[in-house]
Amino acid sequence: MVIENEWWIVEFEEEHGLITRMRDRAGGIEVIAEPRLADNYRLLLPLNDLEANYIPGREQALTAADVDEAGATLRWDGPLHNERGEWALDVVLRIGFAGEAVTFDLEVTNHTEHDLAEAWYPLLGGMRAMGEPADTEMMLPTSGWGWIAQPFLRFPESMPPGAGIPGSRFPEFIAGYPGGMCMPWVDFYDRRLGRGLYVGSHDEIARYRVFRMEMHPGIKHNTDGSNWPREEHRDERWPSGIILGWAHFPYTEPGETFRGSQVVVRAHEGDWHQAARIFREWYDTRFKRVDPKRSWMHKELAVQDTLFLMPEGNLQMTYADVPRWAAEAKEYGVGTVMMSGWDLGGHDSHYPRYEPDPRLGTWEELEQAVAAVHELGMRVIFFANFSPVDCATEWFREELHKYQSMNRWGVTDRMGWGMGTLGARLGFTARPLTNVSAGFPEYRAIIVRQMRKLAEIGADGVHLDKLIPPPMDFNPGLKLSPDRASWEGTLAGLGEILAACREVNPEFALSVESVWDRLLEYSDVAWCWHSNLGTAEHVPVFKYAFPQWWPSMFVCQAYDYNEVNNAVRYGYQLYVGPGRYMASMADEQTRPLAEYVREVLRMWEGLRETILEGDFLDKEGVRVEAPAQVKFSTHRNGRTGQRACVLMNAGDEAAEARVEFVGREGGGATVHEPGREVRKVGLPVVLTVAAEKLVVVIEETAGGR
């Protein structure tokens, strides 16, 4: 059976509905290069004595196939079968065309007495490298940055390499969304061929799912670092290639029907940058992002954060110290302060009791402290958590335990982040925390009520930490399925917090400790814990997909000059925590860095329209010739089209860099440096970047794209 259009040829085997061919016509690439690995779907129906009761779609007889111009509908009417018997499941796999994409939709109706636990689809079996194995790369969007692998040269085995741990018969790679992945897509591309393949899971439902790859015939560790068996080592009886697909975990109850996300496979020109644009295009047709122009928090270039009280009782500041502390931040150009460890028991203790600790002051004294910050013309936000609660409290024993997140066997996890003693930092004496589920409206109401109280005393916003819940939650009291309850509850909770707090303060804003595309509906300001090594680079895939995203780069050591520079380079907010979050910017050791921050902020403010409010282009649109210690990124002014190249020297010695904008021959540019006058130069320009310093080059008029 064949379906085709101007972009694709897709073939199916008639007996079992195996997907035996997918040809990218424009690229001339056979996506399925080894038909012996052809597959379609796999289901899991756990039994009391066999949790792993898998039902392979490749073994089921195809009941019907309806083919039309828009695609094909494949049906497997129950009962399906495996070695344990027959199962009353009806399966429909719809393969369609949507422009340049092939789409896959799965529907399973469960007529059995068991829950449908897993559904893997589409299983695209027999993939190989597009060209040479070393040239096919894979981009996986992780927690704000991107992870790039060469899966056909070194398969990225999820189990420890060489461990041979039993489970999957063949080596596998798995990555979950939300959580491990910030966006639900993976891209394979070959820069030499200029061609890529986008594999996305598009869904309006907030639910957990996993991208999975399985490698055949197995791993061989070679002396050159590759792990695919070479031709001379392979037995032709065992096919070679990858089977990939997305897996859902719906736990669909008897009598119900599971409908999964739409999996989209689309060939494209270029590399992962084009894949990011494909996802953004789809996202904007489904979800409404916050408007950064209406958020005061998005306009703040830097925030000073200090921990007032540690969970072990170490006291750094009280509410009475707030006016001085905030004034010291303002002296160095910072307009917002965040109070961490301001609440009962101190930081990461006694959650969710978000109320003043007597050692710090009273509600009245806290309200006066907030008013003092406002008198300075500044903003103040409070640190809070969304899901962790303290297990060692009477409140937990009496009520909160009902809302605990549980695995399938009713077991809950414990965690804790001690700070103030060595034993606590080692975890021995840290306050015990556990996750509860925002899927319970009763728990959300507890958080909403207390966040509204902060708004009532004048808070301009809150930072909600530890926002990613456990991937699956099996608490029997939840109304939604285990893959949806916490995720949809989290989104509902953010909306409820904003609604309640904006009744008091219409400008109330949120920041979050999480990188999840759906959170852009409520906040685009985030903590994501990028590497805090100023010499380190990451691939800013989420920032490229959503340029408005405003994540933080943490500056907490007295020598974090490169961290400051990296923030400007990527277009990330500065979170300044002097003395490892235990002092203010006037701290004597921190003062030289604070003075540099002040000069950087002055320069940055003048370039706001381009570097903060414009488009982030990663490294596109510019060519830089410089030593490896010089890092750079490109931004573009959305109004004028002018491009800016932000360079930083992460090394200990000055370095020379040549900058040229793609598509422009000659012309002028302006050069901006912290603490120095703006100067004009001709293009291309050769300039010197001082050690641990920053330079911005902006073309005078819009150039080529």
Counted by DSSP, the helix tally is 13
What can be said about the biggest beta sheet? 10 strands, antiparallel
- CATH fold-level label of the largest domain: TIM Barrel
Alpha-beta classification: alpha+beta
CATH architectural name of the largest domain: Alpha-Beta Barrel
The top level CATH class name of the largest domain: Alpha Beta
Point out poorly predicted stretches.
Answer: none
Characterize the overall form: globular
In what range is the share of β-strand residues?
25-35%
Radius of gyration: 27 Å
Spatial separation of the terminal alpha carbons: 43 Å
Number of domains: 3
Mean pLDDT: 94
Helix content bin? 10-25%
Q: In the CATH hierarchy, what is the superfamily of the largest domain?
A: Aldolase class I
Task: Lay out the secondary structure.
Blueprint: E1 2-4, E2 8-12, E3 19-24, E4 29-30, E5 42-44, E6 54-56, E7 64-68, E8 71-76, E9 80-82, E10 85-87, E11 89-98, E12 101-110, E13 118-127, E14 136-141, E15 146-149, E16 172-177, E17 185-190, E18 195-202, E19 209-216, E20 241-248, E21 257-259, E22 262-269, H1 272-286, H2 296-299, E23 302-307, H3 322-331, E24 336-340, H4 363-375, E25 379-385, E26 388-390, H5 394-398, H6 422-425, E27 433-435, H7 441-456, E28 461-465, H8 485-504, E29 509-513, E30 525-527, H9 541-545, E31 550-555, H10 561-570, E32 573-576, H11 578-581, H12 591-606, H13 608-611, E33 615-618, E34 622-625, E35 630-636, E36 643-649, E37 655-661, E38 668-672, E39 679-682, E40 685-689, E41 694-699
Parallel strand pairs: 23-24, 23-32, 24-25, 25-28, 28-29, 29-30, 30-31, 31-32
Antiparallel strand pairs: 1-2, 2-3, 3-4, 5-6, 5-13, 7-8, 8-11, 9-10, 11-12, 12-21, 12-22, 13-20, 14-15, 14-17, 16-19, 17-18, 18-22, 19-20, 26-27, 33-35, 34-37, 35-36, 36-41, 37-40, 38-39, 38-41
Helix pairs in contact: 3-4, 7-8, 10-12
